[in-house]
Design brief:
Number of strands: 3
Largest sheet: 3 strands, mixed
Structural class: alpha+beta
Shape: elongated
Strand content: 25-35%
């Protein structure tokens, strides 16, 4: 099992990491962000990939409800 990298100084200053992704919306792409509680980008990205079906469903549900802020769907990991 690979060890995850330690948080960098910048990541420690920034705090919890945000991961950006896009989903298809007809012929267009919808920008989404996922706020995580992880201290490193690598951990946040791995969480996104490991939980992609659930995250994508939440993003599509938010899109269907019209929950778009500043052109982005914003999700928060609990």
């Amino acid at each position: 099992m690979r060890k995850l990298p330690q948080p960098t100084e910048q990541e420690l200053r920034e705090g919890p990491q945000v991961v950006s992704f896009q989903i298809a919306n007809g012929n267009a792409r919808q920008s989404c962000i996922l706020q995580t509680s992880f201290p490193t980008k690598v951990q946040a990205q791995r969480y996104l990939m490991a939980n992609w079906p659930a995250v994508e469903k939440m993003a599509r549900d938010a899109l269907a409800m019209g929950t778009v802020e500043d052109g982005q769907i914003k999700l928060v990991m609990v």
